[in-house]
Design a protein that fits this description.
336 residues, mainly alpha, Rossmann fold, Tyrosyl-Transfer RNA Synthetase, 2 domains, three-stranded parallel sheet, two-stranded parallel ribbon, 13 helices, 5 strands, binds adenosine-5'-triphosphate, binds magnesium ion, nucleotide-binding, Trp-tRNA-ligase, tryptophan-tRNA ligase activity
Length: 336
């Protein structure tokens, strides 16, 4: 089984990314052929500074390795190093419906937040994301809950491509694989601690409500202590009535790898204040070893580059094979 996922080198990685995506990446390394990518091309769709992008790229690479990605057990690379992603994006654009792109929530949210240019690439972003996954013929895509709509779109793109061009597979060229999203049962959508009806996010969330993977323990504790709850006193998982408390339960359940019910039972008689401290402590305990490992890995940019370059070489072999098939089926270039 082939697994693929990508993560942006924008902003700084937060607890939502860590629980919803990164922990899944690490776990899935041993369940199939896992391919993970830092998507620098996606990061160019909103305003950014080139020099900062490179810094964040290394930050993100070091966080992923510190969290347990192992270049011996997965293919780990930078999107921009494999030009097949952009070529496939163009080819798949012909089977991407304009109307579908126009319905994407993420485009609406991110376009609404721009003061100057709303780039065309922000609009076509989901086709690049489809190309990322389809280039590897991946069956499973571990992501957070916010990516459901993009996953549906990439499935539609693969199905439309296959129906249009690969119905009677021509020669040696193979059709695309229709992938499935893999979402954690607990922790697929971590909310902002200050605005618990919005997802935790570096681009759209509040600063105090976003816990960063690299935050100091004291900062983490402060953010949890100030987390918004409600005027009640019951520690109960009810997203509609008690979104703040439900989010804290979700975080603790994910970090402890247990159920909501187990957390509720443990804190049946606790006060909100004590519960928040317990959640903070669990998160700090989970993140401290990652931060320590990060501090060792981050300074050696040459070593990070070497890992990414070796990964790109492996990735490229797979992606080039898919692109050759897609070109052949679409009648682009000479008949091989
Ligand atoms: P941006 O707001 O710039 O899109 P992001 O925080 O969503 O940034 P990404 O790199 O786009 O970060 O997402 C990486 C992975 O983390 C994706 O699989 C995404 O679904 C997941 N993810 C993002 N936010 C959350 C969240 N709050 N809870 C759980 N998973 C999340
Ligand atoms: Mg995102």
């Amino acid at each position: 089984m082939r697994i693929f996922s990508g993560i942006q080198p924008t902003g700084r990685k937060h607890l939502g990314n860590f629980i919803g995506a990164i922990e899944q990446y690490v776990a899935l390394q041993d369940r199939g052929e896992a391919i993970y990518c830092i998507v620098d091309l996606h990061a160019t769709t909103v305003p950014y500074e080139p020099a900062v992008l490179r810094e964040r790229l290394y930050d993100t690479a070091a966080i992923l390795l510190a969290a347990g990605l192992d270049a011996e057990r997965c293919i780990f690379f930078r999107q921009g190093d494999v030009p097949e992603h952009t070529e496939l994006t163009w080819l798949l654009s012909s089977v991407t419906a304009f109307g579908d792109l126009n319905r994407m929530h993420q485009f609406k949210d991110k376009a609404g937040a721009q003061r100057d240019l709303v780039s065309a690439s922000l609009f076509t972003y989901p086709t690049l994301m489809a190309a990322d996954v389809l280039a590897y013929r991946a069956q499973q895509v571990p992501v957070g809950d916010d990516q459901r709509q993009h996953i549906e779109l990439m499935r539609d793109i693969a199905e439309r491509f296959n129906a249009r061009f690969a119905a009677e597979a021509a020669g040696a060229a193979a059709p695309l694989v229709v992938p499935e999203g893999v979402y954690r049962e607990v922790g697929a959508r971590i909310m902002d601690l200050q605005e618990p009806t919005k997802k935790m996010s570096t681009t759209g969330g509040t600063e105090q409500g976003t816990v960063l993977v690299l935050d100091e323990p004291k900062t983490i504790e402060k953010k949890f202590k100030r987390a918004v709850t409600d005027s009640g006193s019951e520690i109960r998982h009810d997203r509609a009535e008690k979104p703040g408390v439900a989010n804290l339960i979700e975080i603790l359940a994910a970090v402890r790898d247990t159920s909501f019910a187990a957390v509720e039972a443990d804190f049946a008689d606790a006060r909100y204040g004590d519960f928040k401290v317990a959640v903070a402590e669990a998160v700090i305990e989970r993140l401290t070893p990652v931060q320590e490992r990060y501090a060792e890995l981050r300074p050696d940019e040459a070593a990070l580059e070497a890992i990414l370059a070796a990964g790109a070489e492996k990735a490229r072999t797979i992606a080039a094979d898919t692109v050759a098939d897609v070109r052949q089926l679409m009648g682009v270039g000479p008949n091989p």
